[in-house]
Amino acid sequence: MTWKEYSIFLLESIGIYNSDLMLHYYRKIKKFAYWYKKRDGIDMCDIPDQADTKLENQKKVISWRRIARSIEKNDFYMKRLCFAQTKTDDEELRRLIHKWDNLLNEDTISDDKDLINFIKDEVEKDDNKIN
User: Fold this and answer.
1) Non-local CB neighbours of 36 within 8 Å, separated by 6+ positions
2) pLDDT tens per residue across span 80-120
3) Positive or negative torsion for Cα 11, 15, 19, 21
4) For 4-63, what is each residue's pLDDT tens digit?
5) Cα angle, residue 35 at apex, residues 31 and 39 outer, rounded to 5°
6) For the chain, which residues make up each domain, given as ranges?
């Protein structure tokens, strides 16, 4: 399986359980690809499967491996693709947490401290509303 096929597989797998989250990742990937098209003239169909590992780690090149690794790591904000945490993302995450609380909660497996803190804050707010 190529990295491109694997990325698509991951997105489709997420979409089976949570189409909203899949669409979130899709929009981020689309913006990521658009930025590289604008900057380097690389079309979506021309994205390499993988690039020099050193350059990928420095976030200097686009590749399907970078995209797949971001999805694998549950990188909601897609920081591995050079995105930052935004208010829009926070609002979308808040909506997703309330809609899909069985899949997005403080037990969500992720190493993203911002995501973990955000989810904990939302759970705390909900607990305070109940009390």
Assistant:
1) 42, 47, 62
2) 999 998 999 999 988 887 776 655 555 555 667 777 777 77
3) negative
4) 999 999 999 999 988 899 999 999 999 999 999 999 999 888 999 999 999 999 999 999
5) 170
6) 3-130
Q: How many helical (H) and strand (E) elements, i.e. helices and strands, does the chain have?
A: 6, 0
Question: What pLDDT is recorded for position 10?
Answer: 95
Would you state the structure tokens that stand for residue 9, as one six-digit string? Answer: 């597989």
CA distance 71 to 79: 11
State the Cα angle at 53 between 65 and 41, rounded to 5°. 65
Give residue 71's identity as a one-letter amino acid code.
I
98 near 68, Cβ under 8 Å? no
CB atoms near residue 4 (< 10 Å): 19
What pTM does this model have?
0.77
